[in-house]
User: What shape does this take?
Amino acid sequence: MRRNADAVNDATFQSIDIDRAMQLSFDAFSDLVSMQEVAQAFNSAEQSAIEKAETLEQKDRSQTIPVVGNDRGHCKTFIQKADHFAVSLLSIARLFYPEMKARGWTDFHRVVKSRYGESDNFYKVSELTTPFLALVRNARDCLEHNLEGVKTSDFEPQPDGTIAPPSIEIDFRKSIHERCPLSWFMEETTKALLDSFEMIVVHTCSKNMQPMLPLPMVVHLLPENYQKAWRVRFAYGMHYQDGQFVPCG
Assistant: This one.
């Protein structure tokens, strides 16, 4: 997460509460670790169930359906941690856009659209990320309040004789995710949250930089040699007349 936290750590370029932004970044990192631990625990339980079923099949030569048990509980815990991560990200966005107080991701998307227009790259990022972030929030609400809309299943026999792995399907408050393996959902959700965090933080920092005249400072992707040396992907800097980006620091 360091690559993302460093994008908001210089009070020279931003007027927001930098210490608060850093704390929120570390909070998100903590929840990311928890998400990975939940996913790993589920993957281990899934593999153990498969191995146990295979052992039983070898003994009586009949098909045995693996059972993980508490698939909904695993899913609920993971989604809770995922939403905590997203809440930290939303709190960072609110530092840049105070009018976002007590509002959610749909409102954030409206703010980006009204300020920068649909042709702006930030709008395009928001258009891709906010529906997913809203889905995470809606899935959490559904699971925590035991509402209909998130369906989880353990291993299930299929009409063609195969056995489907534990799965999840979401259709709640206009957030829809087709049925997919739960282990895959956890992996892809983690990746998508990381991407969302990085791109939203980068664009909020870029859009809200304090004037640094006569230097035209920007937030930009670092050349690979800097990425390896500094262990970050983005930095403040400037472009020379030949187009070369030179990071500040």
